[in-house]
Every structure is written in structure tokens, then in C-alpha cells.
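Page 37, top half.
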Amino acid sequence: MRHGKHGMKSIVFALALVMLPVLPLVAVAQQANTAAKVLIVYHSVTGHTRSMAEAVQKGAQSIKGIDVLLRSVQEATKEDVLAADAIIIGTPVYNANVAPEVQTFINSWPFEGAPLRNRLGAAFVSAGGISAGEEATQLSVLRSMLIYGMIVVGGPHWTQPFGASAVVSEKPFRDGDGKVDDHFLEKAEALGRHIATLARNWNGVADTAD
């Protein structure tokens, strides 16, 4: 019986020695399996930017391994921002610029200690007319993100290099029912897929990146 107990202890000890090198790999695998978090925040009065936000959400949710949170600027919290691996901001174009509500939200982000450093950032907008300031507004959002040390990302194709945008009040895109044209919703969805894919691949790497 004594020999049996001694033999069992020897086996357990040997198994422990074998498992020691494997444990760090298990920890890394568990970290890699943690879902990346994508936060989509928008401001919308007429519903156009909200429609774009929902299309971005749809695209992001189509990627496995992603937790997607959709919030208006009034609903989004500091905790939401800090928990996100990627932040996608949507704003209507106001006089070729960001809506004040959106800029106020961005200005509220924590700055000291650079807690948003190496997080992914992207932008989408809705505007009344063609060449009404869409790209200028997208770039304004992206510039603000750069101040926080974020890594800004555009769309997946050269036709949407700054994110996604919609024209809602000028022909041929103006629609009597007030809906956003499917063409622009598809671009918003593509942006969501693109950012979610990058966030999934970037998850776990951003904390160690220089």
C-alpha cells in the first residue's frame, strides 16, 4: 500500500512537471478567446445617422468573436469607452463639421495616462448634400481620436477611405420616405465588418504594442 501511494505521488509530480510549460500557452489561448468589444456611438435627430449606426452594428455583429454595443451619445458612458477595443463614432454633418453633441462626447473621454492608446477608431456620417462636408467631418473625428493615441481606420475599399458616409437630401439619393439609400447602408455595414475583423485580430495585442 505504501508503495502504491508513493507511486501515485510520483505520477502526479511527473504530470505537474509536464504541464508547467503548457500552462502559459493555455493562458494565452484563453486571452485570445476573449471577445473583442466594439462600441458604436452616434448622434441622430432625423434618424439618418441612427440608420447608418444600425448598419455598422449589423456588419460588426456578422464577425465571430465580437461583442458589439450600440449607444447614442446620451447613453454612452465613460465605462463603455474604456472597455472598448474599437470605437466607431457616427455624426450628422453640421455646417461641414461634427455635431456639437458628438464633439462634447469625444471631449469627455479620459486623457491622462492615455487609457485609449492603441484602441481602434473609425467614423461615419450623414449629410444633406453631395460635397456638403462629409470627408471633412470624418477627418475631424479621426483627428480627435489621434489626440487620444488611438489607431484610426478607414473603410475596406478605396471608395470609402475615411469610413462611411450618406447623402440624404439631394437627388438622386433623396427619398420621400426619409430612408437612407441602400448603397450607403451597405458601405456602413462594410465598415462595421472591417473594424470588427481588425478588432478581433488586434485583441490582446494592443496592450503590448509600443
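Page 37, bottom half:
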Amino acid sequence: MLKESGVMKTEVVFNESRTERFLLRKVWDESKAIVSLIMLNPSSAEVVTIDMTVHYAICNLYKLGYGGVEILNMTSTIASKLDTNNLILSDENLDYILESVKHSDKTILAWGRCGEGNKKISDLQMEVIRNLSPYKDNLFVIASESGEFGFHPLAPIIRYYWDLIPFVYPKHLKRNKEDLPNESEKEIEEVMPDEPLEDEVKKPVKGRKSKKNI
């Protein structure tokens, strides 16, 4: 008979009123690398309870050989249905994002397709990406086995399999050449991510295939 045991260490940082969550850190193996995972906004996950987004993230990162994840969001407001008219990247939230990205092995942009067709969200994505420009070579997105990429963890096509490929600037965020973090204008391909919000599972939409990674 074989018995195994393990400990999942959790750290959560809220504001005093618990209306904002700045960081959710889950570590299952301190000897292995930790990744940063950036999405749109936090919901119900905390020290003990987790939501399905966190569940799929932990399972897939474990299978990829990582030892932990730091989950961050573009906006720190806790909501199951976010009011997109009041989106801000606060200085405090940005500080947590940058501190995590600075020491993580990889940073995964996993906000899905939420910025397509929503200027307020795409502007927020632009602000985050500009602030991440010093780490442009360490930005990744989630891809499927078939080469489609740019997904949120809840996307059915990647719930049980993640491949991490370098971030390519999506057309719906494109402003000008100086905004491009790691590709020339000719190399930009449109990203078709999956989920609009962290907790709203909608009909899956296929992404575009990466010419570089198939």
C-alpha cells in the first residue's frame, strides 16, 4: 500500500473591508517554480474555498511541473458580475502585480476574450501590458493541443491541458508600434481568447492557431 500526503499553502491579500483581493497565492511544492496568472477580476476564492477557475489553474500548472501560482487580476474588485463602467487599475493592485511578475518563472495573461468589443476592458488591458513591458519576454498565454491560443482557464478546450506559448499582441488591443511588447507590427496575429469574465462561462469560441507553435 502506498500513502501520499501533501500540504497546500495559501496566502490571500484583501483590503480591510474584503471588497478587494490583490493576491491569491497557492503553493504545493516550494522546491519548484511559481508562475503569475493574471485575469480580469477576483471572485469567491479565498483561504479555504476555491472556484473552478482556481481549480483548473492549479491542476494544469501542477501537470506542467510548477510548484505554485500567484493569481492576480487587472482590477481588484471582488465580483461575480463585474460592472465594467468602474474599471480601474489601482496603484496598490499594480504594485502586487509587478512584485509577483518580478520574481515568477512565467507570467500568464489569462483574461480570455473579455476585451474584445469592450473598450473599457481593452483600455485596462493596455494599461496592464504597458506596465509589464520590462518583462515582455516572460509573458505567455494558454494554448490548446491543437495550437489555438489566448484562453481563460475555464475554456472547455483547455480545462485539462495547457501549453504555454509566448504572448503575441492581439489586434483588438493594438494602438501603435511603441505599444508592442515583443513583436514587430508584421508579426502581430489576432488572439481569439475564450471567456469574457472569470466567473461567466459562455459558449466556447475557438481561437486562432499560432503559426509559430504548430
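Margin note: DSSP finds three helices and seven strands in the chain.
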